[in-house]
Design goal:
It is found in: Cell membrane. The chain has 406 residues and is an all-alpha fold. Helices cover 69% and strands 0% of the residues.
Amino acid sequence: MEQPPSMFSYRGTVIQKIWWQVVLVTIYTAGLVCVSNYVEGLEFKFPQTLIPVLGVVTGLLLVFRTNTAYDRFWEARKLWATMTFNIRTLTRCICVMVAENENTKSKIVDKVSAINLLIAFPYATMHYLRGEYTYDVGKLKMLISHIPKFYNQPLEDQEEEEFSGKSEVNSKKEKNKGASQPHTQQQPETNIPVELSYYIASYINSVAFADPKVADGSTISLMNNALNSLLDCLGGFERILNTPIPNAYSVHLQHATWLYLLSLPYQLIGTLNWFSIPAVGLATFALLGILGIGGEIENPFNNDANDLPLDDYCKAIREEILQIIGHHIPAPELWISPTDNPLAADARKPASKMIKLKEDEVRKMLKKGANLNLLQTNSSDLKSVGVDGCRIKDAANGEELRSMLK
């Protein structure tokens, strides 16, 4: 389990970005204090009426900025969870609800091919959101190398990359390295997640027009709804990525914050004197830290320490699905009938023997087993309050049991 963040942690904090600004404001404050103390006739003793006014306004702006950025971060996480759910739904439908009665080997190959595209979908989405519009990157290259491509890179671009010795992915990674990138509306060369949705839809379509025994209408409808939801999640990601916080608001917040910090020393020197230096430094660290956090989590799709761990999410989906497709899902009679299926706890009879009994006997046995389990559970609970199992069995009725609890 991941350890909770420590107050002494440095990686992933905004200190790396704001430390020089804090130092700059602290030096500025120290200079004003020195001038006030050593230059005769020049004292900075301003009334403190400006601090509450600017402080309230700046605080409200910072809170709104941080909340807006976190809403975007949390919305992205919820959309990814929804995407994971729909990938699981499609995988379950393909593995279990699409029959393999005839041409079993061919059906298995078709299923695994479609499921591999479901594994590729989150990888393609991750690279698309990071501006890596290419088929040849990481796990995605291995998963979709066999499918026809919708986009071919222009010859002049290929020659330019060969001449420079840099691939498109490497150049994108260098550009994305470091701080969160600003939101810019770019026209991608190709939208690989959308391409994959067409191939997945073609598989669903082939199943729908096959023998009705392969998959019924409700299964086809469920698969289509899950695929539509995947594209809806992709649209939500694009909305977060391509809708920046208005520039006028961001610039005004920067102006208000710096105006407050630069005017703060003039109003503290008269009362705190030399202690105004650490006071202003702490205030600068707090306010610029909040401002920096908003900028860090505004775009949660990059590789920064405070962004969503999309690589881990993709890996988890891949490993989970690979564990499933490596096994054949057995028919119900194979996992209901074994002798070690404890259907009736009191009689310890397996399901294969329970089937041979009359309906009344089965229901009576199941009811008795349920009551026994409930009594055992209550017994363990009562022991925790000092009532042993013998007294429970000796209790004449429910009222006596309740009195023991009291």
